[in-house]
Sequence to fold (231 residues):
Amino acid sequence: MAQDHDVLILGGAYEFMPTSGEKVSDKKRNALTEAFQIINYDLGILSPAEFSFLQNSPIGIPKNWLGNTEAQVVYKPLANGKKAVIIVLPYLDKRSDKLPDALIDKCATLIKENRKKADLVIAMSPWGYFREKKFLANPVIGGAAPDILLGSGDGPGMSGSLSVKGKTLWVRSYPTGKAVNRIDICAWPTRSEDFKWASGDNVKWFLQTLTEKLREKPEVVKLLSGISDDK
Fold:
């Protein structure tokens, strides 16, 4: 577990392979794994295909990256005695966009239980845009909303959108990479019925594009030298 801090670095699914499941070269896989270990993520999630692909590599699975065939709850201490709970939503077959009622109920139970235990409840999803939209629109989740939903998978990227009557900030990673979603929490969410996120007030979000103007870490540049960035 990471030391107490004010920053959480989190990675969604499909960072190592595209959502199509098409494999990347072993050279690229190994370089990405080493690069992600340098970044030292607090938590990342892997699709089943990514988990298998990395597990069978010489380097293995990076530290703090998890498979997500089942729902999982991860606790992360923050500075000043605060605590975040990350609920990893389970991988679902891409051939359907349905969300089983039993799964919705389970997610709602996990969120409700952990809202009582933590200052911040983050749900991380590999479901894709349309399933995540259904999830947030479900009335069961309306009564048990996560403070933040970090989405990944098929569909458009989003720097941030307020959902569930302002109780959830929904952010989605961009499929082509080359950008990092950043969320700054200026005031902790309360558990009162009338709590809402307000942009520029208690929360800020933006997309940090990774342009040529940013200083590159020499060891990462060396790792990625000669590797195509078309996926």
Q: What stands out?
A: The mean pLDDT is 89. Helices lie at 26-39, 48-55, 101-115, 129-137, 139-142, 218-224.
